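for the record, two folds in this file. i put them one after another cuz i was lazy. first one right below, seq on top, structure tokens after. the second one comes after a little note so u can tell where it starts
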Amino acid sequence: MSEGEGNPRKAPPLTNGRHHVNGNENPKLATIRALLARAEHPTTPEAEAEQSRQKAFALMAKYGIEQAMLAADGATKDEPIDRQIVIDAPWAMERVRLINRIALALDCQLIHLGQHENGPARRVHIFGHRSDLERVDLLYTSLLLQMTGSLSAQPVPYGQSPRAWRRSWLLGFVNRVGTRLEEAQQGAREEARSETTATGRSSALVLADRKTVVENRYRAAYPRSRKGRATTTRGTGYGDGWAAGGRADIGGRRIGRSSAGAIGS
């Protein structure tokens, strides 16, 4: 994750509306939502729930490659765009780290611009192709609900600093989820290795070109950006958070700014 420095070019306004699923949603995204709803239902057996989560995760990764290939063939429009969003407190920086890990796994770029209006909320600017930002939005809003919900159910071990333990738990969750996302994306790329566009371009070349476009737009907007400092933690909840991240669903419902600041379109 990079930190902002200097004055960037003017960006689209911050978004804060509520987003709802509608009849125009891509059928594959609707399937992903249905799988996740099954996984999240309290009466679903754990084995079936985990199977649904894994299938939803795999479909999400394949969907991204499918959209990239369709756009490369001119069958759809999937232009590079960027959005600024507000990440609300509590735990605003840990939420920033969550959306950053998701963005990087999905070939997007994100920069942390600091405090929003001198308050506890944080502002980030994210760059990517439209379909990829749609996936980031879907994943972030779902994982944020799971992360904060799971944390609230965790008792702080006796003798531990509550804030330090909870922060380390959150970092464990974020890092585990990020690793799972990267693994799913890599698996989907391997499966699509033999796919080509109508002009003979490989999926690997299409994805590499898209990534370069996003990076160039990001660098043009923030030529003086610098890499953020490594995160350290003194709490002992990291392992528990890592385990919870391994159980998390990938995808889910959209929410408004009061919880996430949806990316929008």
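(here's the note) second protein begins now
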Amino acid sequence: MSHEFVDIGANLTHSSFAADLGGVMDRAADAGVTRQVVTGADLESSRAAAALAAAHPGALWCTAGVHPHHATEFAPSRHEELREILSLARVVAVGECGLDYFRDFSPRAAQRQAFVAQLEIAAAAAKPVFLHQRDAHEDFTAILAEFRPALIGGVAHCFTGGPQELEAYLALDLSIGVTGWVCDERRGADLRKAVPHIPAKRLMIETDAPYLLPRDIEPRPKSRRNEPAFLPHIARAVAALRGESLDALAAATTRNAERFFSL
């Protein structure tokens, strides 16, 4: 049986895809990854993602937002730019937004300000949020708890935590995005414990391409570039951990993505 998958997080505006994006999209479609949500990481890439989605109706949608790494660029004078991008037809969520205390590429106070601003914008625009959190769990959940009643939805993009973190996110009524991190038996041990406990209605899958190439994929691409065509590999790993068939996993995650992003 052929399966249909939705990759909810693909960084298709990344420079590594510039030379062969057509081939990347063809390989994805051949693998059953018929729809993708392109991630916006700053205002420039969000605008590029929106243009890409507009050029591929039926196959691509996108998010628009400012990753915590770029928080200092998101001055109040630029908030209107984000609102304008969000008004475009195929822009379905606000993000990638959140906190990253692992890299600290932006001061933490600036990260928190940018996060709060985007949650306010998402609430006003009635768009769900596409969330990033690394080593900032307490501040992240505290800020989100304050805004959650006003938001129509949120997904913890590239969730890598264990059962305890999962519990906190489920209490905030978040959906959970699982990447190829789950295919790494060393770094992904906590996530592998959490995956069976994600409610079926909250689970979505993503590659985060070109990042996070699944560690156990064969044959291994020479470039080490991850791409949306590898999503079924991730889906098989997730299904195995949950004791589910690939059919059931594909159907549920596709339904969830359709509902969450209004695809």
